[in-house]
Amino acid sequence: MSESVKTLGLRQMIYLGKGASWARQLIHAIISIALRLFFRRIEAVNVERVPKTGAIIFVLNHPNGLVDPALVFVSLSRRVSFLAKSTLYDNRIGAFLLRTFEILPIYRRIDADAKAESNAVTFDNCFELLERGRCIAIFPEGVSHDEPQLQKIKTGAARIALGAGGSRRDEGGGMKDEGIQNPESKIQNQTDKSNEANLKIIPVGLYYTSKTSFRSEVLIRYGEIFEVEPVALDEMGEPPREAVYRLTAKIEKSLRDVTLNLETESELDAVLKAEALFSSVFENLIFKQTLTQTVQRLQNLAAKYALLEKNDPQKMRELNEKVTRYENNLKKSGITTESLSVLQHPTAYVFRYLILRVVLLILLAPLAIVGAVLHSPAYLFSNLIGKIFKTHDTDIAGSSSTIIAAIGLMPLTWLIVSLLMLYFFGWQIALVAIPIVILCGYVALRSSETLIDMRVWLKSAWLLFRQRALFLRLLVQRKNLQREIEKLSSK
Fold first, then answer.
1. What's the rounded mean pLDDT across residues 379-394?
2. Measured by CB atoms within 10 angstroms of the end CB, which terminus of the chain is less buried, N or C?
3. Which CATH fold topology does 5-257 show?
4. 311, burial (CB in 10 Å: exposed 0-12, middle 13-18, buried 19+)
5. CB atoms within 10 A of CB 283
6. DSSP string across 179-228
7. pLDDT at site 284
8. DSSP state for residue 285 in the 8-state scheme
9. What mean pLDDT do residues 440-447 have?
10. What is the mean pLDDT of residues 44-59?
11. Could you tell me the residue ranges of all domains in the chain?
12. Across residues 13-33, what is the average pLDDT?
């Protein structure tokens, strides 16, 4: 089946929150803005596959704390209730947000003071939602982590999926209307009456170019849909253990299909170095390949490397040594993979790109300078908070702390500027100052990215002019390494 790729824009992300309560809509918009500012590109694959109606369980990998569910929220038009660790309810503000977005608590054994028996109530809430044709989402790994591969998949997702089919039906085949029992997660009584016959499971893979770097990229990949075959439940309402294990294995396989999995960090590093040989140019250019293509290439390389490591470890070591030597030669020469790629494109386009960007930067320089000065304190403090609070309980927080801090500090910056304008110039100037400050911040952001891109282009042209022989030799070496890696697939 062919895959559809789309880059999510801010307007589209905010629009997907329509129809909700005003509180949910407002929070949805704030989350959308924060994510769109933090990530340079948010790419969604196969989001059109998600049915508009019917009960669905989304199963996701969990590399980046609270950012993971937020990305699914802003990429789907359907309302999704996530299962999240119960300790998030300890904070009053956090509890309010979780209830607003219908997050259900999961009591994990690894959490302090967890009441595992309370999960029975959460399961009942899940059954209730699925019976009403709603969607829930689960992180079956059970923990947010930094490992380069999926962690052991827990059986909770399979138990909910199998239990939802039979445990909630009365003798006549109808659904029991028992309502939501958990007082901590009161689900709003807004139902989708178009419940379809079979419960579906959709794997969702999340991939970040960098989980903690400002203006990095993220891919949300929706995988193949499969239906849950109903099973007979025992007298306690539990599905057979064998059926749970079979479905858990199927969930794990489906998640592996949409994620990048490597055994160790060294293997991940080797694959990333190899992929860099095939990469296109820097991010902001119109002929940049999609992030989907990059991840697919990484998956392909990972499979080839794993096979080569198994069949011919010596050749694997030799290939890694060649790639490492090539990378070292690039560093010694002051040349990057982006530099090598830029000048493979038409000179006329390169020249036109540079001229237009230079003119635009000069025209917008006053706004960019003001925006950079005003927003730099919030930017620096957000990054500092992200570095301090790297974990939450036993989970890796990723960029969650940075984004949450920015959600508070950026508006605080606008408020402070507005209050200063009010004090010195009056309320009219204060009101006008807020949108102008926001505009200046956005211009500063885009200008800095354009400057980074232009630096790569200019450096490439200068190196080609000064060291043409070295430049061309490195291009030939890269092409030879590409061919050698490509041949792995034919063996």
1. 89
2. N
3. Glycerol-3-phosphate (1)-acyltransferase (3.40.1130)
4. exposed
5. 18
6. ----TTS---S-------SS-EEEEEEEEES-SSSTTEEEEEEE---EEP
7. 42
8. S
9. 94
10. 94
11. 5-257, 265-491
12. 83
